[in-house]
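Example for tutorial group B:
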């Protein structure tokens, strides 16, 4: 007669150490890359009263502001899809409000991923980010009219 063993209790994944990353971008190039990452993965926050927000603060272009009902719907969907751990509202709110440039783990992981890019593509990335950092097509400063 075959015996069955009970299934193992769900355990947390074992952390894996990341390989050493080579930093081939300058600080200015990293600034450009992280600005792109903040644009692609923006922070999401609850929209405050429009009369108060517009009058007192400059809108943050790196953040998506959702009306309260839409934000609540998104948080519920995220809570249901994330995991069976039933995260608190504070954890979900912090997750949605986070930007890639504010998260050192994201930067470390991005450096590890980019370390595996072929040398020719690294060169192309350095050139692209340097071009994006410069302002070669900006209009000249206005001169006073006498």
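The residue assignment follows.
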């Amino acid at each position: 007669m075959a015996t069955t063993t009970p299934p193992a209790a769900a355990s947390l994944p074992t952390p894996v150490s990341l390989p050493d990353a080579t930093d081939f971008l300058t600080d200015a190039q990293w600034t450009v890359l992280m600005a792109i990452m903040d644009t692609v993965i923006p922070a999401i926050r609850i929209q405050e009263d429009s009369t108060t927000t517009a009058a007192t603060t400059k809108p943050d272009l790196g953040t998506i502001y959702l009306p309260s009902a839409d934000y609540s719907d998104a948080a519920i969907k995220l809570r249901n899809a994330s995991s069976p751990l039933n995260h608190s509202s504070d954890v979900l709110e912090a997750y949605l409000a986070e930007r890639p440039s504010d998260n050192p783990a994201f930067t470390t992981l991005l450096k590890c991923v980019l370390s595996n890019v072929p040398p020719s593509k690294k060169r192309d990335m350095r050139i692209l980010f340097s071009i994006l950092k410069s302002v070669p097509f900006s209009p000249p400063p206005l001169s006073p009219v006498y």
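Residues 68-82 form the longest helix (15 residues). Compare this with the pattern of hydrophobic and polar residues in the output above.
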